[in-house]
Amino acid sequence: GAGVSQSPSNKVTEKGKDVELRCDPISGHTALYWYRQSLGQGLEFLIYFQGNSAPDKSGLPSDRFSAERTGGSVSTLTIQRTQQEDSAVYLCASSLLGTSGRTGNEQFFGPGTRLTVL
Amino acid sequence: QQQVKQSPQSLIVQKGGISIINCAYENTAFDYFPWYQQFPGKGPALLIAIRPDVSEKKEGRFTISFNKSAKQFSLHIMDSQPGDSATYFCAAKKAAGNKLTFGGGTRVLVKP
Fold first, then answer.
1. Would you tell me which of A53, A58, A94, B69 could form a disulfide with A29, CB atoms 3.0–4.6 Å apart?
2. Mean pLDDT rounded to a whole number for chain B
């Protein structure tokens, strides 16, 4: 079956421009996560969506970052007024369930979007 | 504050040898400990995971050892193969939480 897909795979933008990154989770997965992977910071949690609940935005580094999930499926991560320190690989993951239960919590990652801000 | 500390940062092992990666955590609220394998240009892939009610879990050549009292867990790759060359991440998640907290990663190189 299809895994988590992300687009674009690579994005080069100029400082100050806005970018949108897309994530298609595994069909049927109710939970969706965004992480950022950078050389200096490793893998960092950004935001989490679970069903119709309010998202956990506790990992977003600034108010330039926002995300939405439409129809409980596709998610878009938007970075406004990009800065050079935003350069990283942005990873999306999904899991069958959210926090409840001892099974179904496994997070499956997409290939990521490599963002380069010049 | 780094909640999950991973060592070593890099590891070179001969084909057929054992690769050992260690992680330590501070927060006793963590109750789920997965290991991820990542190849260049790819996203992390779940390798094996453990919960603190067991001390060891084995899947094929991969074994997690868990020491709850020491708040440490490790990944052993037995009979290491060149195809195992990748970056490995340990992670932890709280029972009531949703996000994974990752270790810094270990780059493993298996020489033929």
1. A94
2. 93
**d(C-alpha A48, C-alpha A45), whole Å:** 8
DSSP-based three-state secondary structure for B59 = strand
Most A-contacting residue of B33, B57, B94, B98 (CB-CB within 10 A), to test interface: B98
Residue A108: DSSP 8-state: E
Q: Report whether pLDDT(A72) > 90.
A: no
Give A 2-21 residues with CB within 8 A of chain B. 4
pLDDT tens-digit map of A7-17: 999 999 999 99
Mutate to test the interface with A, among B99, B100, B101, B102 (most CBs of A within 10 A): B99
Q: What is the pLDDT of residue A98?
A: 57
Neighbours of B57 (CB within 10 A): 16
Chain segment B44-99, per-residue pLDDT in tens: 999 999 988 899 999 999 999 999 999 999 999 999 999 999 999 999 998 777 88
- CA–CA distance, A7 with A21 (Å, rounded to integer): 6
Q: Shortest Cα distance from A3 to chain B (angstroms)?
A: 11
Name which of B42, B99, B101 is nearest A48 (Cβ-Cβ).
B99
